[in-house]
Design brief:
With 174 residues, this protein is mainly beta. Helix content is 9%, strand content 45%. One of its GO terms (cellular component) is Golgi apparatus.
Length: 174
């Protein structure tokens, strides 16, 4: 509650209006994001390279491609979520195993975006599940370029459970 100002208003609510307005402006998101599209897919072991692709935005403006090879175990259910900002200038691609940690041994991975340039990319060895938090890969295990988040050969320790990319629309030439 605000400290008394020494002035009396005929209505206590009137004195709260400027505070509520400032709070609403300060707390509003910088850019609204559309409801993400989430699609389930199987990550299959066997050492063979597989890809999963989804597009989002007006005219499928943005594409996210997850390419990987893994060993051990059986198929795992994973998900890819894509969302765009209200003005369609940014998009997100999140690829993860909803059950948290993957038990597959990844020999390689690459999450690539088309139609945009990456502003933020992160890879995790363990995805948040129940009371546990995301566990990021060490910086030396992966690299982020303008269009992809991928493993670093020789440094990647084969554990992957989540990838997150935030990208901005590529500039087109006139």
């Amino acid at each position: 509650m605000a400290a008394p100002s020494g002035r009396r208003n005929s209505s206590g609510a009137a004195s709260l209006w400027p505070v509520l307005l400032l709070a609403a402006v300060a707390l509003r998101p910088a850019e609204a994001v559309s409801e993400p599209t989430t699609v389930a897919f199987d990550v299959r072991p066997g050492g063979v390279v597989h890809s999963f692709t989804q597009s989002v935005g007006p005219g499928d403006k943005y594409t996210c491609v997850f390419t990987y090879a893994s060993q051990g175990g059986t198929n795992e259910k994973w998900q890819m979520s894509l969302g765009t900002s209200e003005d369609h200038q940014h998009f997100t691609c999140t690829i993860w195993r909803p059950q948290g940690k993957s038990y597959l041994y990844f020999t390689q991975f690459k999450a690539e975006v088309r139609g945009a340039e990456i502003e933020y990319g992160m890879a995790y060895s363990k995805a948040a599940f129940e009371r546990e938090s995301d566990v990021p890969l060490k910086n030396e295990e992966f690299e982020v370029t303008k269009t992809a988040v991928s493993h670093r050969p020789g440094a990647f320790k084969a554990e992957l459970s989540k990838l997150v990319i935030v990208a901005k629309a590529s500039h087109s030439e006139l």
